[in-house]
Design brief:
Number of strands: 14
Structural class: alpha/beta
Mean pLDDT: 86
Strand content: 5-15%
Helix content: 40-55%
Strand order of the largest sheet: 6-5-10-9-7-8
Shape: elongated
Number of helices: 19
Length: 469
């Protein structure tokens, strides 16, 4: 069962109360802040509906490179601030949002979103004007769009060089064409500055800055293979294709962006939270470096023991009910989830959480990994991503949270941890109610010193292997 949080959490003195989700708000109000820049947050379908609702609007995109330009280019920052909507583009913006506890609904990159939007625009009989890119590219893109978007009218085309030197004639040409949509592909920050300067004079309902979209649509610039895009690593592909031109943007630029995002997130934390986050990052990086050889041995052992990927991901519920993808070394056979329902009655543990000492789904390698808690090691990545902390309550399954009594919701008032008070007090031998008591006590009393104490006790718990199965 896929957990779909329909609540947001409001912290009280000793409780977490359910509140109506902001997803019930109108599309126009779905906004969050990333690096102090308002970002519209929603699904691709919602974004398309917003763009084509017939209201006059300007839409821009923000990725890591855009954010770097925004930090040093005041006019560009002001232009973004005056845009009606700014859509999140790329994993960098997503990570920056996560650092401040915000989870974006989707990656709304223009290369995927705009063609889908134009498909819908064609069905509605709308027209589009293409402005920008090198000579010939916009025309080639227009021909591809006409072929792939039935019903879409190409109102006109101008490149971003000689044909657009006279801004007045360009604006007049767009208005004369009667275009409903204007796509401007001049690159950042020129396209946003152009839109900001001439938007009031343009009659079109929708004006968007679309970067290198025409290059991709026309086929002049190949996109990364689908598996690379699914891994959110298209920037790596572009870097490999154009190392000289893209090295500064992606190698230096990405590092600069992530540093800026981290500093920004730390500024927004309370002193204790900053210290905890810094401790998590430093110790997680050290552990990742030291344990790298062990990771390779475990990966090989799992693959030799049973079929399937050595690392698997599973949806868990974290701080304030936010859903995240948790990583673990696989300790069960690949059909484990399908067999879970049939084994619930064999649980050796009372309460919500299922646990069986003789679970037939566990592999031979898996029993060894569980005995020494090695299966949890990939969660170091979750710590670095900000989904988890080194110390905190056990990350719960969505189905478990749905069965929580109201009191247990207090476990969600802090980030889940790789280790915690429950883990060093007996793990699976502890009842669910006792686990909740321990976790609530930790939430109320958590300090850096308590975290350090729990980490020290973790080594003892691993060696004794109590409750590890």
């Amino acid at each position: 069962m896929q957990y779909q949080p329909d609540i947001e959490f409001r912290l009280g003195a000793n409780r977490v109360e359910r509140q109506p989700s902001t997803r019930d708000h109108p599309l126009e109000e779905q906004s969050v802040a990333v690096l102090d820049q308002p970002i519209w947050d929603g699904t691709p379908q919602e974004a398309i509906a917003l763009c084509l609702d017939g209201k006059r609007k300007t839409v821009c995109f923000l990725n890591a490179h855009c954010a770097n330009v925004r930090a040093r280019h005041r006019s560009y920052a002001q232009a973004l601030g005056r845009a009606d909507y700014v859509f999140p583009d790329g994993i960098g913006v997503e990570l920056a949002a996560r650092m401040t506890g915000t989870r974006l609904t989707a990656n709304l990159n223009g290369t995927d979103l705009v063609p889908a939007m134009l498909q819908e625009a064609g069905q509605r009989g709308l027209s589009v004007y293409l402005l920008g890119a090198k000579p010939g590219v916009a025309q080639a893109a227009a021909e591809k769009l006409e072929a792939s978007c039935p019903g879409l009218t190409i109102a006109g085309v101008r490149d971003g060089y000689g044909q657009s030197k006279c801004a007045r004639s360009t604006v007049d040409a767009i208005n004369t064409s009667g275009a409903d949509i204007v796509l401007v592909a001049m690159g950042v920050p020129l396209q946003e500055l152009w839109i900001d300067q001439f938007r009031d004079e343009l009659d079109a309902q929708l004006v968007m800055g679309v970067g290198a979209l025409f290059d991709f649509v026309s086929g002049m610039m190949p996109r990364a293979p689908e598996p690379v895009r699914k891994m959110r690593a298209e920037w790596v592909y572009r870097l490999c294709m154009e190392p000289r031109r893209m090295a500064g943007r992606y190698l230096v630029g990405n590092a600069t962006f992530m540093t800026r995002a981290m500093v920004h997130s730390l500024k927004g934390m309370q002193a204790g939270a900053v210290e905890k986050r810094m401790l998590d990052i430093v110790l997680a990086l050290v552990a990742l470096c030291l344990l790298a050889p062990l990771f390779l041995v475990i990966l090989l052992a799992i693959r030799l023991d049973s079929r399937g990927q050595a690392v698997f991901s599973q949806m868990r519920v974290g701080e304030f009910g936010a859903e995240f993808k948790l990583f673990k070394f696989r300790t069960m056979y690949v059909d484990a989830e399908a067999r879970r329902a049939a084994l619930l009655k064999t649980s050796d543990r009372s309460g919500v959480c299922f646990k069986s000492k003789h679970d037939p789904r566990v592999t031979r390698a898996g029993r060894f990994l569980r005995k020494w808690s090695f299966d949890e090691l990939p969660q170091i990545i979750n710590v670095l991503k900000g989904d988890m902390s080194l110390v905190g309550p056990r990350p719960a399954l969505p189905s478990e949270v749905q069965a929580y009594p109201p009191r247990a919701m207090q476990r969600l008032m802090t980030k889940p941890g790789i280790t915690g008070v429950w883990q060093v007090s007996g793990r699976a031998d502890i009842s669910f109610d006792k686990m909740v008591d321990l976790d609530i006590a930790y939430v109320k009393a958590r300090t850096i010193w308590l975290d350090l104490m729990v980490m020290a006790l973790t080594f003892r718990a691993v060696l004794l292997r109590q409750g590890a199965y």
